[in-house]
């Protein structure tokens, strides 16, 4: 990592309070307070006021826009359940334990989707090189059903918008603890999109997919990439996996835009995964994605949020780092959380939270170049992915 930050680039951040309407109820893990606390923390650090940042109010995606990745019948079903939550459609995943029905569900979900479309449009128009929708990242939503807290797949909608407007190759990079199955499956047979997902193994975690042998459809073999890491994976092993797969394939694929999903539910405090990551490692991955965008995609980078259920301690810090990095000036890990924000978070949570922007982790990992250890579970996982996918891109799974 360079000692001097790169020059600031035009950055669009899509956010306003109306995005808090995506709310499955007080007992659901996806509490919208995580977005409010993130926005408040970013505001306290002055990120929205940076001269290269444009803060954009979100809008609701139209049904026609949603139909670029979702079936019309499914969208109609969301409308019906949204208008009358007492009549769920569980066959389409609406009104389930994961995705409870609520009044206004369509508008709230379409607003998150519209925000990612706005981010894509900012990049397409040249108004921004970087664009962030930290309220997005709804990567489980499928063409025809809701899944895993996700109604409309804003990541896929943004990618489709880019493709429909002349972008030839898009890399989708997903570092959520859960497999990015919905986005992968929507572009399963499209060679213009490479999806890379690092996640906890589906043998242990929802949605039960995302294995190394899932490599894309017959017209797009090698376009789907999955690194299914073991439970209790910590920073060093996770970063080793990232750097053994992501940079090599990104450089080989040469995307014109990188779309990344930064679910932070892999943190050690998060109750919905068994990973052991720190905010420090999540921040480092954001820096690495930013570097890859500068190197490969002409610095065109669209970033979203995603999962994250340690809503008071982890999510606001992780996504504030994302906003700072995307807007060109990373926040140091030893930066103190502003007292006004800590007071507000304490009033909401009833307890003291963290004092610093980092966890004090010691970030170190073995690079793949030092050798493959067949007795190491992570090395076996990485090698399985490299053997499945690297040959499609002219890469040697043992050495590249």
TrEMBL record:
Full protein name: Acetoin utilization protein AcuC
Source organism per UniProt: Arthrobacter hankyongi
PANTHER family: HISTONE DEACETYLASE HDAC1, HISTONE DEACETYLASE HDAC1-RELATED
Key words, A-Z: Acetoin catabolism
Pathway connected to this protein: Ketone degradation; acetoin degradation
Keyword Cytoplasm: no
Family listed: Belongs to the histone deacetylase family.
Domain Histone deacetylase: 28-324
Cross-referenced InterPro entries: AcuC, HDACs, His_deacetylse_dom, His_deacetylse_dom_sf, Ureohydrolase_dom_sf
Pfam family, one: Hist_deacetyl
